[in-house]
Amino acid sequence: MSVPSDDEPVTRLVGGDADHEERAAEAALRPRTLAEFVGQERLREQLSLVLDAAKARGRSADHILLSGPPGLGKTTLAMIVAAEMGVPLRITSGPAIQHAGDLAAILSSVSEGDVLFFDEIHRMARPAEEMLYTAMEDFRVDVVVGKGPGATAIPLELPPFTLVGATTRTGLLPGPLRDRFGFTGHLELYEPSELEQVLVRSAGLLDVELRPDGYREIAGRCRGTPRIANRLLRRVRDFAEVRADGVVTGDVARAALKVFAVDELGLDRLDRAVLTALCRNFGGGPVGLGTLAVAVGEERETVEEVAEPFLVRAGLLARTPRGRVATPAAWAHLGLAMPRDIPFTGGLGEPDLFSAADEA
Q1: Could you tell me the pLDDT band of residue 20, with boundaries at 50, 70 and 90?
Q2: How do 140-145 and 247-248 pair as beta strands?
Q3: DSSP at 244
Q4: Residues carrying an active site annotation
Q5: Is 127 helix (H, G, I), strand (E, B) or coil?
Q6: What angle do CA 81, 82, 87 make, to 5 degrees?
Q7: How far is it, in rounded angstroms, from Cα 274 to Cα 325?
Q8: Cα 92 from chain centroid?
Q9: What are phi and psi of 172, to 5 degrees?
Q10: What pLDDT, in 10s, does the model give residues 207-258?
Q11: Which of 77, 88, 206, 353 is 20 to 30 A from 332, alpha carbon to alpha carbon?
Q12: Angle between helix 192-206 and helix 212-219 axes, rounded to 10 deg
């Protein structure tokens, strides 16, 4: 099985990405103002100051870059920026801009004060990136007409606008593009208490009777991500309506999430398969990525891009110079005794430097 592109996210109940159908379901749950937005206290305060100052001056807000893992609310914040400024929002994405002409067509339709939202801005084509530099800084683009020696650059003046860029990989953005954003905000993973607030708010909008022990049970399995919290809530609601009395209690939530194979740490089938293979088949490692992928019957990219990020962040797996290593927490979570003759020496977050020989 190969990893789908960003346009075709992997379908996982605990995955941070969302397809078009789920984004439509999320629309009804999105907060409309900064006051309604739960969590990210520091970022909300900073963003509020930026927007209030712009409104007081009667000008467009500075360009804004939002970064962080998927599912934390970057798109929602872009919508809130437009709503708070009282201006239209235009939405596009980096993968949709493959030529400078694509960008020129979008920019030429922007009106004064508009908010232009670029999702996954790091995936924009390089020629369009270079055009965006002058658009952001000078509110001008040069449209090239013709080809070869007879080509002519026609300057096109743009009205002031606010660009909001969202990225899950800030490091892939060129320095000149990052420098043109007047404000950069990073979204952090949510604490369980914040996810409980998200669940209570969403339950009210979905007309779900959610008890305190129910939202606490769900919040602990959400990987710090509101999108996953809302997704799990919808699945638990389905279970409660079909197999219970419609009320989401702690017992109902546990039973529902057991059906959907999401354990108490938020691990799903793929996560547990990786940890189980690492511990049972390879004594906890170290083992090369390719070998581990074969053991779980997945492609390397699936293991590396889909399963590993959360396992590393949760302290269950370490990437070491020699390969992947299961941490003591992984052995404990699987209920397995860690071999005494294989001391854990791997450090979390170490660079993945093992050679091709280690893959054999």
Answers
A1: low
A2: unpaired
A3: S
A4: 74-75, 119, 168, 227
A5: helix
A6: 150
A7: 11
A8: 17
A9: -85, -5
A10: 888 999 999 999 989 988 999 999 999 999 999 999 888 889 999 999 999 9
A11: 353
A12: 120
Q: Which residue has the tokens 């989401």?
A: 248
B/e letters for 230-242, b = 16+ CB within 10 Å, e = fewer, are: bbbbebbbebbee
Q: Looking at residue 307, what is its pLDDT?
A: 83
∠ Cα 109 87 156 (to 5°): 25
Amino acid at 216: R
Distance CA 325, CA 282 (A): 9
* Amino acid, res. 199: L
Query: Of 193, 276, 268, nearest to 231 (Cα)?
Result: 268
| Residue 31: cis peptide before it, omega within 30 degrees of 0 | no
| Residues 55/82, Cβ–Cβ less than 8 Å | no
* Radius of gyration in angstroms for the set of CA atoms belonging to the chain, rounded to a whole number: 23
Q: Which of 288, 279, 300, 263 is nearest to 356 (CA)?
A: 288
Beta strands in the chain (DSSP E): 64-67, 89-93, 115-119, 140-145, 152-157, 162-167, 183-186, 209-210, 247-248, 317-320, 323-326
At 282 the three-state DSSP class reads coil
**Six-digit token string for 140:** 């001008």
Output the pLDDT for position 172: 83
Amino acid at 112: E
How many other β-carbons are positioned within 10 Å of the β-carbon of residue 313?
A: 15
Task: Supply 235's token pair.
Answer: 């699945």
Among candidates 292, 317, 296, 289, which has minimal Cα distance to 1? 296
Mean per-residue pLDDT, 258-271: 88
Of 170, 192, 193, the closest CA to residue 181 belongs to: 170
pLDDT, residue 140, reads: 83
| Contact in structure between 316 and 330 (CB atoms under 8 Å) | yes
- The stretch 153-182 carries a mean pLDDT of 86
Global pTM value: 0.80
